[in-house]
Amino acid sequence: MDYSTLLIDERDGVTTVTVSRPRARNALSGRVLAELDHFLSGILAGRAPRGVILTGAPGPAFIAGADIREMAVMTPDEGERFGLLGQRVTRLLEEVPCPVVACVDGYALGGGCEMVLACDFAYATRRSVFGQPEVVLGLVPGFGGCVRLQRLVGPAVARELIYTGRHVDAPEAVRLGLVNAVFDDRDEMLAVARAVLGRIAGNSASAVSLAKAAVNASGGTTVAAGLAFELDAFREAFTTDDMREGTAAFLAKRRPAFTGVTGEPLLHD
What we know:
The protein is an alpha/beta fold and 269 residues long. The chain is built from eleven helices and ten strands.
């Protein structure tokens, strides 16, 4: 696929994916979602990078939301298909075996906020704003916001944010756990994200993939079910060359030389 709404930059094992519709404030059109679907599916089908950064083209918004002009004329069946595509993309963000970091600079509303929620963690600039304002348009979150937001901030806070549609500034987003850290500007944020992914890249890729799968699979389950997912991942780690290398390196007091790479998740829901 020739991407017309995404910019892909691969550097030092980190792939930066930029949603680029600056005139539409990077809104999620059907085309954007299809291109994200294609790109993320390609990671699952091949060798994964050591990390992915998801961001938006410079401007007032990270991703302002789903494309309202497209949605305004959709039939219920078309709306359902649009929602399914958005949900598929957010599931793919969770399922790719490498860490995905959202770097938010500006508005992350509606579908934009839902993309953030599906990433492993997020950074933001001070001017960033978050929210699920779908009810203001007579809609509800359709790309996973009703599910993931409550898991991140708790059911009561999620209900208040979704029912009111109110916006959350960057400091409150940190307090609620929507983002990990806030930065003064876009360049500083991206530099830190690359540095963090570089640090992660020094660890075992197979172990990071297993840990990601276990964390995602155990979210929202009972403790017993979550422990079962974790034990599956723990056992799977013992089958990898990276585990043998990592433990041998520790005992020999040397740096490990990890080789484990994976194109598909090692665990599934």
